[in-house]
Design a protein that fits this description.
This protein is of the alpha+beta class and 611 residues long. 26% of the residues lie in helices and 21% in strands. The strands form ten sheets. Strands 12, 13, 14, 15, 18, 22, 23 and 26 form an eight-stranded mixed beta sheet that branches. Strands 4-5-3-9 form a four-stranded antiparallel beta sheet. The protein has a three-stranded antiparallel beta sheet with strand order 2-6-7, with no helix packed on it. Helix 8 packs parallel to helix 9, helix 9 runs parallel beside helix 14 and helix 14 packs across helix 16. The longest helix is centred in the C-terminal third of the chain and has 21 residues. This is Subtilisin-like protein.
């Protein structure tokens, strides 16, 4: 084979440098040079067609002003619209065969036409990509990964047809779940859990008028004027996503239901196991329990709840990928972090609404991470075209990342402990195709009839994305905040032109749940997200009963004038972090509580008025 770095560069006259960080990613150490004779299965993830039109396609079915509102696409139409073009496939094939001298029999195109597979030795791959491959070792568990942290090169005319080459610069994290209880040295995946657990001695003494000290299901119904009897049955669907060792016990559900929803005793969610996920094994009980009890408690026995249980057996180190691949088989081909790919590909059912109360990465510009999170967000957008609604918690770290308070220092590094530095958002909440939910509380001595405040038990996450620009449907609301209420921070503290979040809010403290055989007060934006997911599910119930489609991607509608009366405005509170007071809640949208908490009758009426 003719593998010549000189030939590769001369053939295109200019090489395009791809993803070239200068240091080994934090958490990993360079162990040794990779064996030059070892076989390296390469994946070239091809650029999708029509991605530049994704927003236009989505707005056509999600903008209340569109005549096609609610006319969601079929999965087949989505797959056909975005599959790589013949031009892209031919360009990559021509480069490999005619310039790099690869035998055509070694080149394999995936069934969906999304990815080129190629097995080369390490030496051949290094020559082809202008890279140096090493074996890296992870500091926490000693696992090893092959990659090239110093980057790789592609000819300029070819690079526009290739999104990623795997394995290369992205090493990921081998620890699937990083909880926020304590300070971590490496920002990564975790469950939002900023609120403590406080035992409740006598749950029978709790009443709706004491919602400032103990927020029950009845409190939530009162706060959001939620009084809805579900009628669409199994035509509607909703799921919560739980990862790794976050599990629940049916006995805790029954303890909760005996007090707050007697007709639900004996009911459990329908498990949809992904990557070996099993909610019956030993694990942490609090977080999954919180989601399930809140959604089932609000919706009642008329709606089944699905549980996407994503296991640690997932081969991917990009944690949202197992879920995305499980409901969209074509995404499995796009995913390439591991050589083995994903274990569940398009074999799991989709739902109308999915609630995700986890964070996966800080929203920071990083050549090893940014292309991946862009691709994940794009996949969420494509699934939204089919009518899915993605809801995520906004985080419990205020303007910092996670409860550990990661901020970005002037030299570009991330440091925990809320040091003075640039604000950091979190993913997937900052993806514009996700509805991000912040947290509120009933103010001391107030009732459900009074306006809530931004929770003070922990700083509700919110801010501006570094990876995603501000969408047009947010312009008026965000500009109003920045012009009239925005803090006077230096230009480099946050990205004023980025996608702003959260979009809405719901109560996040002190929610009463049953856990480990007793009642406790718990919370976090991890509670706010499933509460809002239940509200949207009830909206879908009414629309389906009226012969209409589920709402799908709701963000453009939420920010439109047709929904001006659909929220309880929250104007008090802040979300401190990074050695600042963060942002202030204010009239209208703000980066603490979004547009406000739901006023269910008004929200329902606004959605029912749409086609």
């Amino acid at each position: 084979m003719a593998f010549s770095r000189l030939l590769l560069c001369l053939a295109s006259f200019i090489a395009c440098a791809v993803a070239a960080p200068r240091a080994v990613p934090e958490g990993w150490s360079l162990h040794r040079r990779a064996d030059p004779d070892a076989v390296l299965p390469l994946k070239f993830t091809l650029t999708q067609s029509n991605i530049h039109n994704l927003d236009a396609y989505l707005l056509d079915v999600a903008d209340p002003r569109s005549p096609n509102y609610g006319r969601h696409w079929t999965p087949a139409k989505v797959a056909e619209t975005f599959k790589p073009s013949k031009e892209t496939v031919d360009a990559v094939h021509s480069w490999l065969v005619e310039e790099a001298g690869i035998d055509t029999h070694k080149i394999r195109l995936s069934q969906k036409g999304d990815i080129v597979h190629l097995d080369l030795t390490v030496a051949e791959a290094e020559s082809l990509l202008g890279a140096e491959y090493f074996v890296y070792r992870h500091g926490e568990d000693g696992k090893e990964h092959v990659g090239c942290h110093q980057g790789y090169s592609l000819p300029e005319r070819v690079s526009k047809h290739i999104d990623f080459v795997w394995p290369t610069t992205h090493l990921g994290s081998t620890s699937l779940l990083r909880r926020d209880a304590g300070v971590s040295t490496v920002p990564g995946f975790g469950r939002v859990s900023g609120a403590p657990k406080i035992p409740v001695d006598d749950v029978s003494a709790l009443a709706a008028e004491g919602c400032d000290t103990a927020a029950t299901i009845d409190c939530l119904r009162g706060l959001y004027k939620y009084d809805h009897t579900l009628v669409s049955g199994d035509k509607n669907s909703v799921a919560v996503a739980e990862f790794s060792n976050e599990v629940y016990r049916p006995s805790d559900l029954d303890l909760f239901f005996k007090t707050y929803a007697p007709d639900q005793v004996g009911h459990i969610p329908e498990t949809i196991s992904i990557a070996g996920g099993d909610p019956t094994v030993s694990g942490d009980l609090g977080e999954s329990t919180l989601d399930i009890e809140l959604v089932m408690g609000l919706l009642g026995a008329g709606q089944n709840l699905s549980l996407y249980q994503i296991g640690e057996a997932a081969n991917s180190s990009v944690f949202l990928d197992p879920l995305l691949g499980a409901v969209d088989g074509s995404y499995c081909e796009l995913e390439g972090v591991s050589n083995q790919g994903l274990s569940d590909c398009g074999n799991k059912p989709t739902v109308n609404v999915v609630s995700i109360s986890y964070h996966f990465n800080p929203d920071v510009i990083d050549p090893t991470i940014s292309p991946i999170v862009q691709r994940e967000c794009t996949e969420i957008g494509k699934l939204s075209l089919t009518g899915m609604t993605f809801i995520a918690s906004s985080g419990d770290g205020g303007v910092g990342y996670s409860q550990s308070g990661f901020c970005q220092l002037a030299n570009g590094t991330l440091q925990a402990g809320n040091p003075k530095g640039a604000f950091l958002g979190q993913l997937p909440a900052s993806c514009p195709y996700v509805t991000a939910v912040g947290a509120t509380s009933v103010a001391p001595n107030n009732t459900v009839d009074d306006p809530e405040i931004a929770t003070t038990r922990f700083p509700s996450g919110g801010g501006f994305s570094n990876n995603f620009p501000r969408p047009t449907w947010q312009d008026d609301a965000v500009t109003n905040y920045l012009d009239n209420f925005g803090p006077n921070y230096a230009e480099n503290i946050f990205n004023r032109s980025g996608r702003a979040y959260p979009d809405v809010a719901a109560n996040g403290w002190p929610l009463v749940i049953a856990e480990s055989g007793q009642f406790v007060k718990s919370g976090g934006t991890s509670a706010s997200a499933p509460i809002f997911a239940a509200i949207v599910t009830a909206v879908n119930d009414a629309r389906i009963a009226a012969g209409k489609s589920p709402v799908g991607w709701i963000n453009p509608a939420l920010y439109s004038s047709a929904f001006a009366n659909a929220y309880n405005d929250v104007t008090k509170g802040t979300n401190p972090g990074c050695s600042t007071q963060g942002f202030n809640a204010a009239p209208g949208w703000d980066p603490v509580t979004g547009l406000g908490t739901p006023n269910f009758p008004e929200l329902l009426a606004a959605f029912l008025a749409l086609p």
